[in-house]
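Thread amino acids onto this structure.
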Protein backbone atom coordinates (compact mmCIF):
# COMPACT_ATOMS: atom_id res chain seq x y z
CA UNK A 1 0.00 0.00 0.00
CA UNK A 2 1.29 3.43 -0.91
CA UNK A 3 2.57 5.43 2.02
CA UNK A 4 0.42 8.40 0.99
CA UNK A 5 -2.68 6.31 1.18
CA UNK A 6 -1.67 4.94 4.57
CA UNK A 7 -1.31 8.51 5.79
CA UNK A 8 -4.80 9.25 4.62
CA UNK A 9 -6.22 6.37 6.60
CA UNK A 10 -5.40 8.11 9.82
CA UNK A 11 -7.33 6.73 12.71
CA UNK A 12 -8.36 9.14 15.38
CA UNK A 13 -8.70 7.45 18.73
CA UNK A 14 -10.96 10.08 20.18
CA UNK A 15 -14.67 10.37 19.83
CA UNK A 16 -16.03 13.77 18.87
CA UNK A 17 -12.56 15.01 18.10
CA UNK A 18 -14.01 17.82 16.01
CA UNK A 19 -15.60 19.52 18.94
CA UNK A 20 -12.47 20.90 20.50
CA UNK A 21 -11.39 23.36 17.83
CA UNK A 22 -10.10 23.01 14.32
CA UNK A 23 -7.77 24.51 11.78
CA UNK A 24 -6.75 23.83 8.21
CA UNK A 25 -3.19 24.31 7.06
CA UNK A 26 -1.73 24.19 3.56
CA UNK A 27 1.92 23.29 4.07
CA UNK A 28 4.49 21.99 1.62
CA UNK A 29 2.44 18.83 1.30
CA UNK A 30 -0.08 19.25 -1.54
CA UNK A 31 -2.69 17.52 0.58
CA UNK A 32 -4.65 19.63 3.00
CA UNK A 33 -3.96 18.95 6.65
CA UNK A 34 -6.89 19.04 9.00
CA UNK A 35 -5.78 19.62 12.54
CA UNK A 36 -8.18 18.93 15.34
CA UNK A 37 -7.79 19.43 19.02
CA UNK A 38 -9.62 17.36 21.57
CA UNK A 39 -8.95 17.24 25.28
CA UNK A 40 -5.78 19.26 24.66
CA UNK A 41 -4.39 16.65 22.26
CA UNK A 42 -3.75 17.57 18.65
CA UNK A 43 -4.86 15.24 15.88
CA UNK A 44 -3.93 15.54 12.26
CA UNK A 45 -5.94 14.09 9.40
CA UNK A 46 -4.74 14.33 5.83
CA UNK A 47 -7.50 15.23 3.45
CA UNK A 48 -7.34 14.35 -0.22
CA UNK A 49 -6.41 17.25 -2.46
CA UNK A 50 -9.51 19.20 -3.30
CA UNK A 51 -11.34 18.37 -0.09
CA UNK A 52 -13.00 21.18 1.74
CA UNK A 53 -13.93 21.47 5.35
CA UNK A 54 -16.76 23.09 7.20
CA UNK A 55 -16.55 21.52 10.60
CA UNK A 56 -16.82 24.60 12.70
CA UNK A 57 -18.02 27.98 11.55
CA UNK A 58 -16.15 29.71 14.36
CA UNK A 59 -12.90 27.96 13.44
CA UNK A 60 -10.25 29.63 11.33
CA UNK A 61 -9.29 28.64 7.81
CA UNK A 62 -12.70 27.12 7.17
CA UNK A 63 -13.64 27.09 3.50
CA UNK A 64 -16.68 26.43 1.40
CA UNK A 65 -17.64 22.77 1.08
CA UNK A 66 -18.07 21.71 -2.55
CA UNK A 67 -19.97 18.44 -2.50
CA UNK A 68 -19.55 15.98 -5.34
CA UNK A 69 -22.75 14.03 -5.74
CA UNK A 70 -22.73 10.80 -7.71
CA UNK A 71 -26.27 10.23 -8.90
CA UNK A 72 -27.00 6.49 -8.70
CA UNK A 73 -30.71 6.57 -9.54
CA UNK A 74 -30.45 5.16 -13.07
CA UNK A 75 -28.64 2.12 -11.63
CA UNK A 76 -29.35 1.66 -7.92
CA UNK A 77 -32.75 3.34 -8.17
CA UNK A 78 -34.13 1.56 -11.20
CA UNK A 79 -32.70 -1.91 -10.64
CA UNK A 80 -35.61 -2.88 -8.38
CA UNK A 81 -38.30 -1.45 -10.63
CA UNK A 82 -40.20 -2.97 -13.49
CA UNK A 83 -37.77 -2.72 -16.41
CA UNK A 84 -38.00 0.51 -18.41
CA UNK A 85 -37.16 0.40 -22.08
CA UNK A 86 -33.73 1.45 -23.31
CA UNK A 87 -34.89 4.79 -24.73
CA UNK A 88 -36.62 5.80 -21.50
CA UNK A 89 -33.57 4.97 -19.39
CA UNK A 90 -31.31 6.94 -21.75
CA UNK A 91 -33.74 9.87 -21.61
CA UNK A 92 -33.62 9.95 -17.80
CA UNK A 93 -29.80 9.76 -17.74
CA UNK A 94 -29.53 12.50 -20.39
CA UNK A 95 -31.86 14.73 -18.35
CA UNK A 96 -29.72 14.13 -15.24
CA UNK A 97 -26.64 15.14 -17.28
CA UNK A 98 -28.26 18.58 -17.71
CA UNK A 99 -28.86 19.25 -13.99
CA UNK A 100 -25.29 20.19 -13.08
CA UNK A 101 -24.45 16.74 -11.73
CA UNK A 102 -20.90 15.74 -12.68
CA UNK A 103 -21.04 12.04 -11.79
CA UNK A 104 -23.78 9.56 -12.66
CA UNK A 105 -23.82 5.80 -12.12
CA UNK A 106 -25.79 5.13 -15.26
CA UNK A 107 -25.86 1.37 -15.71
CA UNK A 108 -24.57 -1.96 -14.48
CA UNK A 109 -23.17 -4.82 -16.50
CA UNK A 110 -24.72 -7.62 -14.49
CA UNK A 111 -26.59 -10.73 -15.54
CA UNK A 112 -29.89 -9.69 -17.14
CA UNK A 113 -31.41 -12.82 -15.62
CA UNK A 114 -30.48 -11.68 -12.10
CA UNK A 115 -31.42 -8.02 -12.63
CA UNK A 116 -33.70 -7.67 -15.67
CA UNK A 117 -34.12 -3.91 -15.19
CA UNK A 118 -30.41 -3.43 -15.92
CA UNK A 119 -30.33 -5.39 -19.19
CA UNK A 120 -29.02 -3.75 -22.41
CA UNK A 121 -26.60 -1.42 -20.61
CA UNK A 122 -24.46 -0.82 -23.70
CA UNK A 123 -27.54 0.13 -25.73
CA UNK A 124 -28.58 2.62 -23.05
CA UNK A 125 -25.12 4.25 -23.05
CA UNK A 126 -25.21 4.46 -26.83
CA UNK A 127 -28.33 6.63 -26.67
CA UNK A 128 -27.31 8.92 -23.79
CA UNK A 129 -26.61 12.52 -24.73
CA UNK A 130 -23.20 12.50 -23.06
CA UNK A 131 -21.42 15.62 -21.91
CA UNK A 132 -17.72 15.97 -21.36
CA UNK A 133 -18.21 17.42 -17.88
CA UNK A 134 -20.26 14.44 -16.69
CA UNK A 135 -18.45 11.25 -15.75
CA UNK A 136 -20.56 8.15 -16.33
CA UNK A 137 -19.99 5.17 -14.04
CA UNK A 138 -21.00 1.53 -14.48
CA UNK A 139 -21.26 -1.07 -11.76
CA UNK A 140 -19.47 -4.26 -12.76
CA UNK A 141 -19.53 -7.53 -10.81
CA UNK A 142 -16.63 -9.26 -12.55
CA UNK A 143 -14.03 -9.12 -15.31
CA UNK A 144 -16.59 -9.98 -17.98
CA UNK A 145 -18.74 -7.02 -16.94
CA UNK A 146 -15.68 -4.79 -16.85
CA UNK A 147 -14.78 -5.72 -20.43
CA UNK A 148 -18.34 -4.97 -21.55
CA UNK A 149 -18.29 -1.60 -19.77
CA UNK A 150 -14.95 -0.60 -21.30
CA UNK A 151 -16.19 -1.66 -24.74
CA UNK A 152 -19.23 0.57 -24.18
CA UNK A 153 -16.90 3.52 -23.59
CA UNK A 154 -17.71 3.98 -19.91
CA UNK A 155 -15.71 6.61 -17.99
CA UNK A 156 -15.31 4.84 -14.65
CA UNK A 157 -16.17 1.63 -12.83
CA UNK A 158 -17.73 0.81 -9.48
CA UNK A 159 -17.25 -2.59 -7.88
CA UNK A 160 -18.66 -3.86 -4.60
CA UNK A 161 -17.32 -5.91 -1.74
CA UNK A 162 -18.78 -6.25 1.72
CA UNK A 163 -17.09 -5.48 5.00
CA UNK A 164 -19.21 -8.31 6.43
CA UNK A 165 -17.98 -11.79 5.42
CA UNK A 166 -21.43 -13.36 5.83
CA UNK A 167 -23.06 -10.71 3.65
CA UNK A 168 -20.34 -11.12 1.01
CA UNK A 169 -20.80 -14.89 0.89
CA UNK A 170 -24.57 -14.56 0.60
CA UNK A 171 -24.45 -11.72 -1.92
CA UNK A 172 -21.75 -12.89 -4.32
CA UNK A 173 -20.90 -16.38 -3.02
CA UNK A 174 -17.28 -15.41 -2.48
CA UNK A 175 -15.10 -14.82 0.53
CA UNK A 176 -13.89 -11.26 0.97
CA UNK A 177 -10.38 -12.41 -0.02
CA UNK A 178 -11.76 -13.88 -3.26
CA UNK A 179 -13.59 -10.62 -3.98
CA UNK A 180 -10.36 -8.67 -3.44
CA UNK A 181 -8.60 -10.84 -6.04
CA UNK A 182 -11.49 -10.29 -8.46
CA UNK A 183 -11.31 -6.52 -7.96
CA UNK A 184 -7.60 -6.60 -8.76
CA UNK A 185 -8.44 -8.27 -12.09
CA UNK A 186 -11.09 -5.65 -12.81
CA UNK A 187 -8.57 -2.84 -12.16
CA UNK A 188 -6.37 -4.36 -14.89
CA UNK A 189 -9.26 -4.36 -17.35
CA UNK A 190 -10.14 -0.74 -16.46
CA UNK A 191 -6.91 0.42 -18.14
CA UNK A 192 -6.45 3.51 -16.02
CA UNK A 193 -10.10 4.45 -15.65
CA UNK A 194 -11.10 5.32 -12.07
CA UNK A 195 -12.23 2.29 -10.06
CA UNK A 196 -14.30 3.01 -6.96
CA UNK A 197 -14.88 0.14 -4.56
CA UNK A 198 -18.18 0.47 -2.75
CA UNK A 199 -17.79 -1.34 0.56
CA UNK A 200 -21.15 -2.52 1.85
CA UNK A 201 -22.31 -3.00 5.45
CA UNK A 202 -19.62 -0.66 6.81
CA UNK A 203 -22.00 0.81 9.40
CA UNK A 204 -23.59 -2.48 10.39
CA UNK A 205 -24.60 -5.81 8.89
CA UNK A 206 -28.04 -7.41 8.88
CA UNK A 207 -26.30 -10.70 9.67
CA UNK A 208 -23.70 -9.86 12.27
CA UNK A 209 -25.05 -6.67 13.81
CA UNK A 210 -22.52 -4.08 14.75
CA UNK A 211 -20.23 -2.36 12.28
CA UNK A 212 -17.00 -4.22 11.38
CA UNK A 213 -14.98 -1.00 11.34
CA UNK A 214 -11.76 -2.65 12.48
CA UNK A 215 -11.34 -4.50 9.20
CA UNK A 216 -12.31 -1.70 6.82
CA UNK A 217 -9.02 0.28 6.79
CA UNK A 218 -7.12 -2.97 6.15
CA UNK A 219 -9.45 -3.87 3.29
CA UNK A 220 -8.98 -0.38 1.82
CA UNK A 221 -5.22 -0.79 2.12
CA UNK A 222 -5.22 -4.11 0.27
CA UNK A 223 -7.38 -2.68 -2.50
CA UNK A 224 -5.28 0.48 -2.82
CA UNK A 225 -2.26 -1.71 -3.42
CA UNK A 226 -4.16 -3.30 -6.32
CA UNK A 227 -4.76 0.09 -7.96
CA UNK A 228 -8.20 0.99 -6.67
CA UNK A 229 -8.45 4.77 -6.85
CA UNK A 230 -11.23 5.55 -4.43
CA UNK A 231 -13.64 4.14 -1.89
CA UNK A 232 -17.27 4.58 -0.99
CA UNK A 233 -18.61 3.36 2.33
CA UNK A 234 -22.14 2.02 2.05
CA UNK A 235 -24.82 1.82 4.69
CA UNK A 236 -26.51 -1.04 2.88
CA UNK A 237 -29.44 -1.62 5.21
CA UNK A 238 -29.71 1.81 6.81
CA UNK A 239 -28.04 0.99 10.13
CA UNK A 240 -25.88 4.13 10.34
CA UNK A 241 -26.41 6.88 12.88
CA UNK A 242 -24.39 10.08 13.28
CA UNK A 243 -22.43 8.42 16.09
CA UNK A 244 -21.60 5.40 13.92
CA UNK A 245 -20.64 7.69 11.04
CA UNK A 246 -18.17 9.50 13.31
CA UNK A 247 -16.77 6.23 14.63
CA UNK A 248 -16.22 4.79 11.15
CA UNK A 249 -14.72 7.97 9.68
CA UNK A 250 -12.27 8.16 12.54
CA UNK A 251 -11.01 4.76 11.40
CA UNK A 252 -11.03 5.30 7.63
CA UNK A 253 -10.23 8.98 7.30
CA UNK A 254 -12.50 11.32 5.38
CA UNK A 255 -11.20 10.81 1.84
CA UNK A 256 -14.13 8.50 1.14
CA UNK A 257 -17.56 8.73 -0.41
CA UNK A 258 -20.70 7.74 1.47
CA UNK A 259 -23.59 5.72 0.06
CA UNK A 260 -26.42 6.10 2.53
CA UNK A 261 -29.81 4.41 2.73
CA UNK A 262 -32.78 5.91 4.50
CA UNK A 263 -34.27 2.69 5.88
CA UNK A 264 -34.61 4.17 9.37
CA UNK A 265 -34.87 7.83 8.40
CA UNK A 266 -31.26 8.67 9.25
CA UNK A 267 -29.67 9.15 5.81
CA UNK A 268 -29.83 12.94 5.73
CA UNK A 269 -28.61 13.48 9.27
CA UNK A 270 -25.81 10.98 8.62
CA UNK A 271 -24.83 12.86 5.47
CA UNK A 272 -24.70 16.19 7.28
CA UNK A 273 -22.63 14.67 10.07
CA UNK A 274 -20.15 13.48 7.45
CA UNK A 275 -20.13 16.90 5.74
CA UNK A 276 -19.35 18.51 9.07
CA UNK A 277 -16.35 16.17 9.37
CA UNK A 278 -15.08 17.08 5.91
CA UNK A 279 -16.51 14.33 3.67
CA UNK A 280 -17.41 15.74 0.26
CA UNK A 281 -18.52 12.75 -1.85
CA UNK A 282 -21.99 11.23 -1.68
CA UNK A 283 -23.95 8.67 -3.68
CA UNK A 284 -27.61 9.64 -3.88
CA UNK A 285 -30.57 8.68 -6.05
CA UNK A 286 -33.09 11.04 -7.60
CA UNK A 287 -36.48 10.43 -6.05
CA UNK A 288 -34.93 8.38 -3.25
CA UNK A 289 -35.55 5.19 -5.17
CA UNK A 290 -33.53 2.06 -4.70
CA UNK A 291 -31.84 -0.23 -2.29
CA UNK A 292 -30.32 -3.56 -3.09
CA UNK A 293 -32.60 -6.26 -4.47
CA UNK A 294 -30.41 -8.76 -2.57
CA UNK A 295 -30.32 -7.03 0.82
CA UNK A 296 -33.34 -7.83 2.89
CA UNK A 297 -34.60 -4.71 4.63
CA UNK A 298 -32.68 -2.25 2.46
CA UNK A 299 -34.55 1.03 2.21
CA UNK A 300 -34.35 3.65 -0.48
CA UNK A 301 -31.23 5.61 -1.23
CA UNK A 302 -30.74 9.08 0.19
CA UNK A 303 -32.67 11.27 -2.27
CA UNK A 304 -30.44 13.55 -4.33
CA UNK A 305 -32.91 16.43 -4.12
CA UNK A 306 -33.17 16.13 -0.32
CA UNK A 307 -29.39 16.57 0.02
CA UNK A 308 -29.22 19.36 -2.59
CA UNK A 309 -32.09 21.18 -0.86
CA UNK A 310 -30.31 21.13 2.48
CA UNK A 311 -27.02 22.21 0.89
CA UNK A 312 -28.73 25.03 -1.03
CA UNK A 313 -29.97 26.51 2.24
CA UNK A 314 -26.44 26.62 3.66
CA UNK A 315 -24.18 29.36 2.27
CA UNK A 316 -21.12 27.27 3.21
CA UNK A 317 -22.09 24.23 1.13
CA UNK A 318 -22.48 24.00 -2.61
CA UNK A 319 -23.36 21.15 -4.94
CA UNK A 320 -23.50 22.78 -8.38
CA UNK A 321 -26.82 21.03 -8.96
CA UNK A 322 -29.89 22.89 -10.23
CA UNK A 323 -32.61 21.83 -7.81
CA UNK A 324 -35.50 22.80 -10.09
CA UNK A 325 -34.05 20.76 -12.95
CA UNK A 326 -33.51 17.83 -10.61
CA UNK A 327 -37.09 17.99 -9.33
CA UNK A 328 -38.32 17.95 -12.93
CA UNK A 329 -36.40 14.71 -13.46
CA UNK A 330 -37.91 13.29 -10.24
CA UNK A 331 -41.39 14.12 -11.51
CA UNK A 332 -40.68 12.42 -14.82
CA UNK A 333 -39.22 9.44 -12.97
CA UNK A 334 -42.38 9.02 -10.87
CA UNK A 335 -44.33 8.79 -14.13
CA UNK A 336 -41.82 6.30 -15.56
CA UNK A 337 -41.93 3.93 -12.57
CA UNK A 338 -45.64 4.58 -12.08
CA UNK A 339 -45.64 5.04 -8.32
CA UNK A 340 -44.94 7.68 -5.68
CA UNK A 341 -41.34 8.42 -4.78
CA UNK A 342 -39.98 8.20 -1.23
CA UNK A 343 -38.21 11.56 -1.55
CA UNK A 344 -39.60 14.23 0.78
CA UNK A 345 -38.77 17.07 -1.52
CA UNK A 346 -40.26 15.44 -4.59
CA UNK A 347 -43.52 15.15 -2.66
CA UNK A 348 -43.59 18.46 -0.79
CA UNK A 349 -41.38 20.83 -2.79
CA UNK A 350 -38.63 23.09 -1.42
CA UNK A 351 -39.20 25.25 1.68
CA UNK A 352 -39.88 28.86 0.72
ZN1 LIG B 1 -27.98 2.25 -2.60
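Threaded sequence (352 positions):
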Amino acid sequence: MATGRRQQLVALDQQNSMSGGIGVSHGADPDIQLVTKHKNRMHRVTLGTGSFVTPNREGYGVSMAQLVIREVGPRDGLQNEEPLNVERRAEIISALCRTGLTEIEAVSFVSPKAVPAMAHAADVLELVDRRSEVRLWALVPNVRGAHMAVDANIDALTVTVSACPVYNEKNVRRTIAESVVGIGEIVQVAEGRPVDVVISCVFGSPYTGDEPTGTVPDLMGQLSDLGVTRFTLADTTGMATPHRVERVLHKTGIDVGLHLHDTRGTALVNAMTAVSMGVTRFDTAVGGLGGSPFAQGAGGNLATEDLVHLADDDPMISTGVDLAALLAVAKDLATAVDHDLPSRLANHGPAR
